[in-house]
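Hi team, as promised in this morning's meeting, here are the two structures we talked about. I've kept the exact order from the run log so nobody has to guess. The first one is mostly here for context; it's the second one we should focus on when we meet again. Sequence first, then the predicted structure tokens.
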Amino acid sequence: MQKSISFKNANIAFSDQGKGTAVVLIHGFLENSTMWNFFVPELAKKNRVITIDLLGHGKTDCLGYVHSMALFAEVLDAVLKYLKIRKYILVGHSLGGYISLTNAKMNPTKIKGLCLLNSTSEQDSEERKKIRNRANKMAQNNFENMVNMSISNLFNPENSATFKKEIDVVKKQALQTSVQGYIAANEGMKLRANTNHVLKDNNFKKLIIIGKKDPVLDVKKSLEEAKKTNSEIVVLPDGHMSHIENKVELIAILKNFLKQC
């Protein structure tokens, strides 16, 4: 059951289930907390699991026209402070990974473990920034087409038929994101800094999970990133949406990771 708090006059929706070590699941761009519906019941058997709708996503309001990673991380802090949680594990998918890294930079002593799921501590390349600029312009003119195209491109192309039903659900959820929320998050991701040092300089448990056929992240670069940041890495066989394409393998990996933190 979702609850909410007010942060800078914006409504922030979240859920809190289970008892034990606090685990915060942070969704990605154009997603919302429902992306974790398969995982929460399993993980909440032995942990306290918190999910949050990010600014401009799900049932959470927008807060201005640029949602920086620091602002997203402040929202996370506000929810955890409200819940009186002092130590926690972060699992962030894509955008959620960038936010997890920023939160860990702000609160290194509070973090017991950090998992980047189809995410990276690298900043946007110049080409990626140009893509975000074009996407924002397209979103203003034809948001539905932009969203449908963006979601389809996140999966391993070989899975388009296998996961057609799931892809349609993701598209429907994505269209609940406002145009303002879309643009504000894209602007924030475009401006984010490199956070390799957050992984490299801290002793909490670190795990990077990537897809071998991820169209967004290059697997070779992710392997190099894991090596230079002293992070464990797991390569799954499919695309950017491991929570759908490889959910059975992923739940086992996450359970094992939580035990080690």
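And here is the second protein, the one for discussion:
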Amino acid sequence: MRVALDAMGGDHAPGPNIEGAAAALEANPDLEIRLVGDESLLREQLSLHGLSSDRLTVVPSQGVVGMDEKPTQALRAKPDSSIAVCWKLMAGREVEGVVSAGNTGAVVAAGLRTRLFLKGVRRPGIAVTLPTAGGQAVMMDVGANPGARPEHLVQYAVMGTIYAKRVLGIESPRVGLMNIGTEDGKGNELYREAHQMLSKARLECQYIGNVEGRGLYRGEADVVICEGFVGNVVLKVSEGMAEFMMRSVMQTMHHALDAEREQGSQALQKLARSYEYSESGGAPLLGIDGVSIICHGASDGRSIANALKVVAKIEHQNINEQIMREIAGLGDSADS
């Protein structure tokens, strides 16, 4: 398994990327990593960390897409940036996967420019794993395709279901459509039409209909689908609310007795870990002919290592082959 790792991506690059690469190589003897970035800086960092392996290769790039840059403009101005080079390696079949904690929009835009879509896939989408009262749920799409069509949402149901089965181990995922109400006629034209198509499509899953926002964390569905604008808003609000709640509870606990505070603190830390991006590593861009994992900008070495593990798991589970097979089985509902 060969993976291109954007060594320059992330808030604290390249340190966490190098640490994550080292941990992943140690854990997986079949993994090979192309560390993409500033060659002199990376070789200096590898020397400082005492890292040397025939499974770790430095691939030079020029420039970095900043977190505050407009993706398409930055990619045009920096065609040899670390993100762009990673995707070029996958387009040239030199690697099977790409991992980056850099500018999410640039990662997606660079991927879309390569047109490395799986056969039958109209628009790739980003799938995130979220904790719920019932365990875990996949939400897709959270930002790759804000202008989705109904048929794209049907394909997200297919891809999200396969990911939930093969990566999260959910045997019979329930699929829900994120909407403003559970009734059949709710939502705008996009969601009303998507609901009708999902109700009639030949899906290898249980479509339970519309799900309201409150139903996401109640665990009413195992796979929640929406277009990228809605999904990104839901994700960012969830992150902000989780952070706010944790801080509020911790402040309240400071007034508790020492013993109770210690027990409560341990419980909160355990709960907080279930929300941490470090645990899941990152979010896959599903629908790509290859594997792409988008990591949080603040990713540490553990997060990067976990992302690299997810790449291997997706590849070994033959998820892309299953996606193509099931989308082909949709017939006309998969056409745009």
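Starting points for discussion:
The chain is about 50% helix and 15% strand.
The two ends are 33 Å apart (CA to CA).
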